[in-house]
Amino acid sequence: MSLLSVRxxxxxxxxxxxxxxxxxxxxxxxxxxxxxxxxxxxGAGKSITGFSLMNLLSRPGYIDSGKILFDGEDVVQMxxxxxxxxxxxxxxxxxxxxxxTLNPVLTIGQQMIETLMAHRKLxxxxxxxxxxxxxxxxxxxxxxxxxxxxxxELSGGMRQRIIIAIALLLDPQLIIADEPTTALDVTIQAxxxxxxxxxxxxxxxxxxxxxxxxxxxxxxxxxxLVMYAGRIIESGRTREIINDPQHPxxxxxxxxxxxxxxxxxxxxxxxGNMPGLVSIPAGCAFNPRCKYATxxxxxxxxETEHYGKVEVACHExxxxxxxxxxxxxxx
Amino acid sequence: xSTETLNPxxxxxxxxxxxxxxxxxxxxxxxxxxxxMIVFLLIAVASFLAPLIAPYDPYDPAQIDIMxxxxxxxxxNGSLPGFILGTDDQGRDLWSTILYGTRLSLLIGICAVALQxxxxxxxxxxxxxxxxxxxxxxxxxxDIQLSFSTLMVAIIFLAVTQAMFGTDxxxxxxxxxxxxxxxxxxxxxxxxxxxxxxLAEKKKEYVDSARVLGFGPMxxxxxxxxxxSLSPIFVISTVQxxxxxxxxASLSFxxxxxxxxxxxxxxxxxxxxxxxxxxxxxxxxxPGVVLVVLVLVINLLGDWMRDVLNxxxxxx
Amino acid sequence: xxxxxxxxxxxxxxxxxxxxxxxxxxxxxxxFKQGRIVRESRSVHAVNNISLEARxxxxxxxxxxxGCGKSTVxxxxxxxxxxxxxxxxxxxxxxxxLSRAGMQPLRKKIQMIFQNPYASLNPRMTIRQALEExxxxxxxxxxxxxxxxxxxxxxxxxxVDPSWAKRxxxxxxxxxxxxIAIARALTVDPEFIIADEPISALDVSIQAQVLNLMLEAKExxxxxxxxxxHDLSVVEHFGTRVAVLYLxxxxxxxxxxxxxxxxxxxxxxxxxxxxPQLKDDRPNHIRLKGEIPTPINLPQGxxxxxxxxxxxxxxxxxxPKAIHQPDGSTVACHAVExxxxxxxxxx
Lengths: 331, 316, 347
Hints:
heterotrimer, A: alpha/beta, eight-stranded mixed sheet, four-stranded antiparallel sheet, 22% strand, B: mainly alpha, MetI-like fold, 14 helices, 70% helix
């Protein structure tokens, strides 16, 4: 049985004069210990997905319909007591900005020990010992001293390590990481990624990695969802998606990277912008930016279908591929 | 070349833009603000139309009959028909006098705040933008000014001028003196607020961009930084108008403001104060209520505006 | 220097230094130490003795991690900051000590694009006002029609529909705003553009659009760029030459191809290996110990020594000088100079 199973999740935002749909019928599964990447640009709904999984949405956002089954229990229907037990204990979240996540007026030790004592029946000393073990796990030198320090005394990379340690504190089954390395420098980012990979593998922790960086997804995850304007448009094994993307948007996203073009040449850009939530076009949301779009694309929302080795939501995926084959045959 | 599409709707008018903006929306949703605005507009319009709607002209001695003095308002026995709110000690129609008085109070309040704003904004902009020694100097000046209370400065200044020019000349130019003294005494409020916003705005990239384009400091201050510092200026302006009206009323009450022949709300309250124990409470009470209501609605509007324009609550 | 026009680099930076005082004012500099009050002012050494040059038509990229002083260099060249020491020359003329009036003719030639498109446009000005302002300022006496034509032309060239000119910046997306910011810089027909992380605040698909736009402008207008970024894949694509900065010092300067095919400085190598790769999923990066020290107390010797696997006693005491390499690059590293790197790698 899968650890997490999301079915037809729809999230809406009540705006001033209208209600907009931020997530539109999202469905996916996550096996125990699996690492899943959610990729998309800003406004695609990837962070909202992360928040809804823990039922953390706050007004004006709300879960309109759908199920989030975590270990067989629906997170959407849980009462506050159950939710508290879920958050932190069984699911943990890592955010982009380490400075905002840590409370600046409490020492690292206070934050870790109090989290532990709130969830487990432990003495202060026992909690301290666990905290030290966890800090050691994320390769923090001299953890006993760190416990006495305040967040501002530590560097960005160190803080993000501590946040990972706090996320792992209660041995959760799933970690949701929302752009965990975006605020960090490249060399530090590489370290943190390696660390997260190692911890997830050795502790059999599931990971949902939300990011805009295809390189990070490629190195960290086994499976990937690509989101666009509140829908999943392509999903499958990360390798397949990176090497042979099927949806025109995924193709565009990968081809737009500077690595994909010879230096000095024009990059293969996707024209236009991601639509705002209030102005999602009819039919396939990507149609105004898609060079393959037909009238059918402009009127009907494509269903997710199995195509090749991935699931893809595109009317034209077949034609697109036969075109490519023909071009290759001609070349 | 990219083909970006933004639906080519027609440009909305200024009015509908304001109505649909965040501010317009929160205004419509806030009954306190709406009621305050209505009351304020009623008072303001009525007082500025005083010459048209007042039945008598309180400045015209020919229309005043001392024999009519101290008649009670219309709902009390013994009132004289034609005087809705009764008359004051000099026989002036209280309703007309209050209208004219409110007009004076508002005028002095708004002009004094305009003067404060002019001084404070200029000094604050320069201090914040130029920085360094000049900033320290100007802000120390502001601190010194603030350490004297407005009323104290005003009392000393007005008492001295009254003694210097004599009561007649003073009474003639009382409006100007009041505006000047209230205006000058309170500029640091503006200067400090503006300086703080300028310091925050100065760090933003659009200011750097203007500097790289070679614009002069004057242009950057006035065209670029000032329009982006307006929100806090609006907020303190409302509070300052209320404060200035109270200051004016206090000074007039103390006999250092408007003369009884040209009464503002403050001097009206003051002139009626002598009669409050002889039963003619309305001469003090009714202008007092008007003053309280006026100041209250302005402050309520200021509160609402502060909530809406608070950059911490609203990011845009 | 036979022919100043062809031989001389467009931009020359010589021994540039910038310190920011942390303790401003007399009272803040007073500290209580060992029972005595001493006067001591700390400062951030943001840029330390940097020398660089950019030739006409080049795209010189400056890469480095946060706090390495790359933005400070950009702001020094743009004249937004004044250097603590050193010289900046543009077209042979010294520009770091010019008055505002003296700088005025250069303002038309040197323009800057900023990182955050949400902050670099004045929110209270319409697009038209924002674009017309520099044209009017630098061409006094130009008729309203000509100004309008110029603005329309520039808007078209960056792919912004001129009919949107009446709108305010908040009505546009980040990518469109960055286009408008670029348009604003182009209104004065500059020849040199300083771009401080111009695409790092944008989405991937929009990054490509803006980068293409900048390449287009480079070709059609013969622009020279000073491009500040932390993103190495962008450097590889966009730059003709690269300078790698670490803690306010230049580690390595090389042609883009040379740098990416044959990085020499240990820091450059680590940096290159740390970029997440799309196609191969085995992260195989050179792990750096520790993190960038603060630029308040700079270490003696090589700035990179605390994280370098090759550091020895010489690195801890003597700051390495930039040494020219046979392939045209310049590297500041004792280990490269002594040929220790390959020896360690082999052994």
